[in-house]
Design goal:
single chain, mainly alpha, Non-ribosomal Peptide Synthetase Peptidyl Carrier Protein, Chain A, 4 helices, globular
Length: about 90
């Protein structure tokens, strides 16, 4: 899991970074409502210098969907491996 993205998701949804994984969905996160979705949109746009359109936002119903949407926008998400660098 990309540490930058995990940190954003954890902050927006009030979770621990260790709780963030690609299989996590909107249904799994009680705090993931429409207001938090917009907070997430603004955070991703600011962090990755991208502009999200309505179709992009509608795809963001899981961490895997968010990852794919970011990749489609040209964002490179490198996975940090445990024990390698800090």
């Amino acid at each position: 899991m990309n540490k930058r993205l995990a940190a954003i998701l954890a902050e927006v949804f009030g979770l621990r970074e260790s709780q963030i994984h690609p299989d996590l969905t909107k249904a799994d996160v009680g705090t993931w409502d429409s207001l938090k979705q917009m907070d997430l949109v603004m955070s991703l746009e600011r962090e990755y210098d991208i502009a999200l359109e309505i179709p992009d936002i509608l795809r963001m119903v899981s961490v895997a969907g968010i990852i794919q949407m970011l990749k489609d926008k040209g964002v490179t998400l490198e996975v940090e491996r445990a024990g390698l660098g800090n």
